[in-house]
Amino acid sequence: MTGTDPGGIAADRAVRVLIVDDEAMIRAGIRAVLASDPTIEVVDEAADGRAAVDLTRRKRPDVVLMDIRMPMLDGLMACREIVGLGQDARVVMLTTFGEDSYIADALEGGASGFLLKASDPRELVTAVHAVADGAAYLSPRVARRVIDRFRIAGAPAAADDRARVAVLTERERDVLALLAAGSSNAQVGRELHLTEGTVKGYVSAILVKLGVENRVQAAVLAHRAGLVAPT
């Protein structure tokens, strides 16, 4: 597999978001949270996965906040279809359900992030910006579940992943650890005193060296390898 770095959206425009949930009250709550940030624009809402795919095709949002259990087409299948459109929309799964199978299916389906509805509202805004910037975003609670899933399965994932991470330079490991913690390119750059262009170059090299296709897979690997402090 070869890695690619999609980069983020232009810094001079608002992040365009599509909210997808079959409960009107939940959609209203999410819209209210996002309205607190003037750099986020909600372009539309959908109550089922099929409508979400159609609206993504027509309105081209930057980020789709997607519930999992919905009529017509569930969020997991809708995520796969949206990713398959070949547009720049990135999907963040937003749900009350934290079962491991949902998390794994969402990540394997191309989701750029996973956030529980019980999370702090500020985390929702952070996730939108991180994913729009091209980063992976795993809620700390979700990251913990991912790690536990591999531990329970009895696979020697941690040792294997530590070996894979060992091929990275010290600077590349620093970049990967920050990305896995949910930092955007800009935040990584500020933390490590690098330009965003340099950060993107590091990310592209990291994906190739690790043999993963995207930042979410790299983030999961980083958590399992112990690069991110447990929460």
Provide a short characterization of the protein structure:
One of its GO terms (molecular function) is DNA binding. The protein has 11 helices and 6 strands.
Radius of gyration: 17 Å
Supply the CATH class of the largest domain. Answer: Alpha Beta
CATH structural fold name of the largest domain: Rossmann fold
Helix content: 40-55%
Beta-strand percentage?
A: 5-15%
Largest sheet: 6 strands, parallel
Give the overall average pLDDT. 84
Number of helices: 11
* Low-confidence runs of at least 5 consecutive residues: 1-5
How many E strands? Answer: 6
Order of helices and strands: EHEHEHEHEHEHHHHHH
The CATH architecture of the largest domain is: 3-Layer(aba) Sandwich
- How many separate domains make up the residues? 2
Q: What would the principal axes of the Cα set say about the shape?
A: globular
Description:
This protein is an alpha/beta fold and 231 residues long. It folds into 2 domains: 15-145, Response regulator (Rossmann fold, 3-Layer(aba) Sandwich), CATH 3.40.50.2300; 155-224, Winged helix-like DNA-binding domain superfamily/Winged helix DNA-binding domain (Arc Repressor Mutant, subunit A, Orthogonal Bundle). It has helices at residues 24-35, 49-59, 75-84, 100-108, 121-132, 140-153, 157-165, 170-180, 185-192, 196-210, 215-224; strands at residues 15-20, 40-46, 63-66, 90-95, 113-116, 137-138. It has a 6-stranded parallel beta sheet with strand order 2-1-3-4-5-6, sandwiched between helices. The radius of gyration is 17 Å and the shape is globular.
